[in-house]
Design brief:
globular; alpha/beta; 364 residues; eight-stranded mixed sheet; 40% helix; 2 domains; 13 helices
Amino acid sequence: MKTTIKENSFCYKSVFLFLFFSLFPSAPGALSREAPFVSRKLHWAVTEKKFELAMERLRVGKKARRRIPVILSHGFLVNSRFLNLDSDHSLAEYLAQEGFDVWNLSLRGTGRSLNPLRGGPKSWTLDDMIGEDLSTVIRYVRKESGSSKVSWVGYEMGGLLMYGYLEKKGRSGLASFVTIGAPAIFNRPEQEPMKRLLKLEENPTLRKIFLYLDGPFLGRLLLPLLPKLEKHFYNPENIDKEIKVKFLETALAPINPGVLDHLLQMIRVGEFVSAKGDFNYRKKLAKVRVPVLLIGGEKDYLAPPKALRTTHRALGSKDRTLRIFGSRSKDPIKYGHFDLILGKKAREEVFPVIGKWLKRRDKR
């Protein structure tokens, strides 16, 4: 008889607990796992020519769990907000929550890195950033973090800059390297529409108007109105409307005249070369010996899979991986260019691949 009472008592308690937690799932705060708090602090690395380069440092706690800090670098026509748009669309915040010490860089001429301290150049090229800025940034992060090496995650132009840095400077200070939508060639059929920009070379007046109106104004004006243009930058089906609006309002950046001319030079030649055309970065990719992960989208017309496969084969690193999102994804929606960061499921599909790859190299 006593056993029956105990069994009934246990049964009643079990039913009560089940009903309690079903009706009040958030009552005990300890049971609901909240995302760890990410602290943010602004830093400036100053080049020899007194150019300030802003970086936002993101991490959980005073000391990151991972040994190697990660520097994020954005691409053409966008600023560092692109990689840290909001909590659901932030590669920077995701990596910080995964235990990394993250440094989100604003390349010169964008965001808070707008002007040199006193005087200085008003126009520059990717060669200038490769030769001056990357060394300064890497040296600063190594000193502040106390780490002998860093990892670099470069979206588009940020990836091209690191290709050039490794070819010119060697692997000093770099542990690993992730590129996102960063091809070293621009001559594939899917990239053909990019050649329309060459009209700016042929018409100086049109070029002045383009630079005067700047990228943010043109982006907000043209992308929503021209579906054929829009698809070259992202797959409209893979970005929520409110995220697209936020991106167009906050993450676009003007393009520097020298950077524009360098981009036109690369489009005309069909591959990643120096601004003067006297150095071919694409042909020197064999000098890149650090571990590299290349990320791409199946419907990316600016960095099509064939261009990324050619770049992948040319790299000299034995540890190199290419991942194209779309063809192997469980979701039928294909990834374009910007949606590798801002896509509906980028946080669930793309970011974990980057995080896991960096963690493996962090343990070595």
